[in-house]
Specification:
heterodimer, A: alpha/beta, six-stranded mixed β-sheet, four-stranded antiparallel β-sheet, 17 helices, globular, B: alpha/beta, 13 helices, 9 strands, 47% helix, binds pyridoxal-5'-phosphate
Amino acid sequence: MSEAPAEIEIDSVGFSGPDASGHFGPYGGVFVGETLIAAVEELALVYQDLSGEQDFWSEYDNELRHYVGRPSPLYFAERLTEVSGGARIYLKREDLNHTGAHKVNNTIGQALLAKRMGKSRIIAETGAGQHGVASATVAARLGLECHVYMGAEDIKRQAPNVYRMKLLGANVVSVESGSRTLKDAMNEALRDWATNVDNTYYIIGTVAGPHPYPQLVRDFQCIIGRETKQQSLEMFGKLPDALVACVGGGSNAIGLFHPFLGDKRVAMFGVEAGGKGLETGEHAAPLSAGTPGVLHGNRTYLMTDPGGQIQETHSVSAGLDYPGVGPEHAWLKDLKRVNYVAATDTEAMNAFHKLTRLEGIIPALETSHAVAYAMDLARSMGADQTIVINLSGRGDKDIETVARLEGMKL
Amino acid sequence: MPAMSRISAIASDRIQQEKKLLIPYLVAGDPDLPTTLTLMKELVQQGADIIELGIPFSDPASDGPVIQRGVERALNGGTTLRDTLALVAQFREGDTETGIVLMGYLNPIEIMGYENFAGSAAAAGVDGVLVVDMPPTDSMELHRRLAAADIDTIYLVAPTTSAERAKDIAEACTGYLYYVSLKGVTGAAITDHESIKETIESMRQLTDLPVVVGFGIKDSKSAKAMASVSDGIIIGSALVEQIAKLSGGAPEKPEIPSCCAVIGEARSAIDSL
Ligand SMILES: Cc1ncc(COP(=O)(O)O)c(C=O)c1O
């Protein structure tokens, strides 16, 4: 049911990026070591060619339909709406995708690129493990060797996903450097890529990294927004008044938002991880409380200290525990097209339980940040208005963490 | 460039003497700043022509484990870019001959501000800057600021760099051109000597700058092999590995000369060419 990507361009006049050199306004770019330049340039060229080919998108659509199970439903959350009091809340059910999150939309697309480029080895970084699982899954399906870099801290808090990756045949590499979380996993993946650049394809899991990643990951995630648009028209005869999504690197958020950027009356809210509260400094909210800088191949908002060191982040959810954010979000923030806000650990945990009990849907802790903000937002809106939350993933992977935080042991 | 930069002067001097450039790399503040200063002076004693001083950064994505740990030691001591610049100024009080190149990642420089950085670096006595994650196309603004402060901007050429791109890089580069001898991160092992030789020969057609080799030189044997096909060599991980054995706190320790011996040995090896 996805349309040709040309549609995106028409939808988002005025917000079309990146430019030919990979910039979204002042953000983005290609800030990587010289060894990797040839690889990212080759990828940009291949993607430019393939993204113009109808065959490529047909293959991608076919995979999404038959392997992932798309389209994902748009679901009216009646009891959540009642309890929130205000706007009608709909959930875009990315949690129902094969592997349980939006991440697979991207790994399917990039695996097709890897195949076309003749690469036999796949590497990925992962935080919550969802992207790692989605990468291991496509690698298994295509018979590719797969190595997933994961921070030692995250390995501890996402044990079920680590085991899933191993079952799928991936080699999970524990990253012991730096803060031992997602950013360090990404450093290690970049080092691997520089070393094995000839036969290796690096599947980045979010809309960050050097150009063309922010663009191509976005394009693969835009299926979320395109479906939402069509489903909204079918279900309630108009576009939603507000879209809400959590923002780690920003891939599920941009996937929902991008096809609506040109629809001026649709308000958008990206919800970052407020951790213990923005005022405490212990959070992972670069758009809400960071400054522009350069990390992992692009210029964007970052959490950096006055000396330019990247700061350690804190979030209850491993998938949001990242000090940067995709460059397109940085640009959309400056353009004031999207509102970036934060939800704390506690707010996310409360929302996790609310959604579970009210709708029988256990959301990922990442997603719970969006649910928390959307419930507040709903209260400030009228009953004739609608909100769509990107339900980016399911929470099965998080139940041990939740139990631990609540003093239980499983 | 109006006057000849210190790096160019050193290079032409060495070429005249038919000698190769010897460029050790160490991290500022590893294990602490006073020790780094002592190490720098010792490196000069043992024959360093230019010193590459690493600016500590929390996310050194182009570095292997040895230099990563050196950077972590420096960061544990709280070493900043400002401290690194102050270290250069201190070194310059006693040494106006040796070239100093700062090597690091872009974010600390970006946060300090390009103009401020270029001015402070020039005042401290820095001769060149190499930003690992800043390819020429995205670096025009910083390059311009550095040039205005008479500081060389050094770029890398890698085994994966296309011929066409190498030409552009050679044109943009000043000081010396840094050839990365392997596909990978700092400290890995060089495997393909023959292709390095060929690539360096082809780079000589592109530029009059000295072409130096770095990233995998571990001992006098590899130093000699790489120096024989280039204008000079950079030794990083092999030195930082020795520095890892020092503990901080007593900069004038007797181990300092033996810690830097890998550089002295490389000097003898390449001088015997
Ligand atoms: C379910 C889920 N939602 C959101 C995220 C955050 O990533 P992004 O901001 O790229 O969507 C993750 C990352 O692991 C995730 O697993």
